[in-house]
Design goal:
By secondary structure, the protein is an alpha+beta fold. 38% of the residues lie in helices and 16% in strands. Helix 2 runs antiparallel to helix 3 (79-108) and helix 6 crosses helix 8 (338-357). It is elongated, with a radius of gyration of 28 Å. Bound molecules: dinuclear copper ion. Dinuclear copper ion (CUA) binds at residues 121, 124, 188, 223, 225-227, 231, 234.
């Protein structure tokens, strides 16, 4: 069910709200509260039926036992009993199905949203793109802040670890937010238990879901569809802000984007491209490829030894665009624009050349 153990765990952090990990929690949307109510309603009906059926059965076995002189009845049929055990369960099933159907229909109603965000699942990160309103055009990737190896080697081991991301989704409070989901590689699933939201992100398809959070705060979820080796390391973080704070965030993001935007008519010099590439590298590649040799061992460019030889430029471009099957190298085609790809390749070849590897430093 939607209220997963993962969701309960992150809320049960020291200093955080206490929740019973065996149960769902109520969340901050009408849908999540409906789900909670349905859960209790269905559970209650099941318990009443269980006690009723087994109560009658055990009472009959005990009260009508042979030693009391009772004999088994031998009647062939009983219309009244047959009608009762058909009609009563039918009424119970309808009583359970009606409110459940109402909630499912409400969950699917993504019409008249205030904010629409396209969410793309990647191995292993999330991409967010605001599609409408004042935030239209804001676009970023949400990646694990700490490399997996560091999380796994942390001390003390075994303690719960709250995974943070570099950029998280930000939405306004009390507004209907429509999430349009797809994926670039394999199936992922976007789940926030506090919103009562879980929707698969499927390559080649657009699926949507929505939420309307009524309490500002930070809400957490987790990719909920097994998507490869780092499936457990693509957390989802959503911050719900008061409208004024959200407007301010949108403004700041727009300013930041304008400051970083590339002029499409610009003639790039090698030095400019290398400088731009260093930033692209810092934002996308360093988690694995750290210049000091940390990150994933043996990854390009360690720059401090003879571990890896940089391949031909065409092969390097292909690797950046398509990733490297069988390794952790993910495809960046569609995530980086042409300038960014040219810049990051120029930067890495330049850095490699400076490290005395004698490679061709010629830029694209
Ligand atoms: Cu993405 Cu599991």
């Amino acid at each position: 069910l939607i209220g997963s153990v993962a969701g309960a765990q992150v809320r049960d952090m020291p200093g955080g709200p206490k929740v019973n990990q065996l149960n769902l929690h109520e969340g901050v949307t009408a849908i999540s509260r409906d789900i909670m109510w349905l859960h209790w309603m269905l559970l209650t009906i099941c318990i009443v039926i269980f006690i009723g059926v087994f109560g009658v059965m055990f009472y009959s076995i005990w009260a009508h036992r042979k030693s009391r002189g009772h004999k088994a009845a031998t009647f062939h049929e009983h219309l009244g009993v047959e009608v009762a055990w058909t009609v009563i369960p039918f009424i119970i099933v309808i009583a359970m199905a009606l409110p459940a159907t109402k909630t499912v229909v409400a969950m699917k109603d993504t019409s008249s949203a205030d904010v629409t965000v396209k969410v793309t699942g990647y191995q292993w990160k999330w991409g967010y793109e605001y599609l409408d309103g004042p935030a239209a055009g804001i676009k970023f990737l949400s990646t694990l802040s700490t490399p997996r190896a560091q999380i796994e080697n942390r001390e003390p081991k075994g303690e719960f670890y709250l995974m943070e991301v570099d950029n998280h989704l930000v939405v306004p409070v009390n507004k209907k937010v429509r999430i349009v989901l797809t994926a670039a590689d394999v199936i992922h699933s976007w789940m926030i238990p506090d919103f009562g939201v879980k929707q698969d992100a499927i390559p080649g398809f657009l699926r949507d879901t929505w939420f309307n959070a009524d309490k500002p705060g930070i809400y957490r979820g987790q990719c909920a569809e097994l998507c490869g080796k780092d499936h457990a390391f693509m957390p989802i973080v959503v911050e719900v802000l008061a409208q004024a704070d959200y407007d301010k965030w949108v403004e700041d993001q727009k300013k930041k984007m304008a400051a970083n935007a590339d002029d499409p008519n610009k003639e790039w010099t090698e030095a400019e491209l290398v400088a731009r590439g260093e930033k692209v590298f810092a934002a996308n590649c360093v988690a694995c490829h750290q210049a000091n040799g940390k990150g994933i061992p043996g990854s390009f460019p360690p720059l401090d030894g003879d571990k890896v030889v940089l391949g031909p430029k065409a092969e390097q471009i292909n690797t950046v665009l398509k990733g490297k099957p069988g390794t952790a190298m993910a495809p960046f085609g569609g995530q980086l624009n042409d300038v960014e790809i040219a810049a990051v390749i120029s930067y890495t070849r330049h850095a490699w050349s400076n490290a005395g590897k004698g490679q061709d430093p010629t830029v694209l």
